[in-house]
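Extended Data, record Helix-turn-helix transcriptional regulator
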Amino acid sequence: MRIFNLTELGAAIRSARSAKGLSQSNLAQTIGATQEWISRLENGRLPNPGFANVMQACTAVGLGISIDDDSIQPVFDAPDDQPADLAFTTPSFLKRQ
């Protein structure tokens, strides 16, 4: 299943939670969140739920997350003939115009 936004992510978590027979309160207790946070996550109403929090919720309901799009290519500042040193390369979005 591919998920393209937080609303779809929340629906997938809700479906998996329901399939496991967990209530929102059960899931919240399992991951150290509140029932309200779970509700907002499932309804796509958390603008930035935090990746670690989402991972915990997904793991608790038996969902995995994978990144498999090979068409995404990183952009580096290094010339093509030299590998970029990620520790010292400034991402283009942080450069001053």
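Summary. The helical segments are 6-19, 24-31, 35-42, 51-61.
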